[in-house]
């Protein structure tokens, strides 16, 4: 069952007389407990998608459901509840996730206090999160006394404090060096396994996207392809990862043929489809050959 479901999602930004279509009919389905990476060129709509899923921004049209919530039909009060209970958000800028004068323990406490959780439960939850994320020694330190990787792990703890079903991270390793970035990414994988929280992480980093079972690529505000990875074991016992790329089909059955394929066969306006046993073929129209 999908925990996150977006269908033909559209977001248009209007600045003066200029209209920018940041999302142009995006389709995405994520199951509960999954961890996916979202990749795409700058300006392709990744941050817009994440802001919508985080309940910070509202879509213009289409469908977007997360858990029991319809993101296009939420009241202001629903939105507050949704952001407090259903999703946690980690931003790229380490500093913007934390508060300079609060210790890790204090900042993790904030969302729980806002949700009126009893003090004892809050203390217990903070301890559990600090432990799970390997930052128990940072409990009483302020951001300036922690490394970038430690700060981002505290940010993950803050995002998870109220036990959200979904954890969203927008380039969480963007400001970090390779080693630290691997450490933060491992923390995300760990909480995904440990707490069963569904994780959606936007990244530019191919070494990050290569480590999740599913990578969704966005091009021009639309889901263009998905790469699924699985581990296969050869007869001699060696294991290796197989990555397969899939095109994404929407509810109406529309599939985009990658430009390289179209150009290779000089396909322009019309193609001939044929249903064969077990597959479909796409041929250039006779008059285009
Ligand atoms: N508040 C806004 N007002 C107007 N246009 C916007 C706004 N936010 C985003 N856009 C535009 O929408 C498009 C998608 O932007 P978005 O930030 O979602 O892309 P992105 O894939 O996250 O890019 P990056 O990797 O550079 O962060 C871009 O053309 C951007 O300029």
TrEMBL record:
Start and end residues of each ABC transporter domain: 4-245
Protein name as it appears in the record: ABC-type lipoprotein export system ATPase subunit
Highest rank taxon of the organism: Bacteria
Pfam families: ABC_tran
Alphabetical UniProt keywords: ATP-binding, Lipoprotein, Nucleotide-binding, Transport
Signal sequence range: none
GO cellular component, one term: membrane protein complex
Any one GO MF annotation of this record: ATP binding
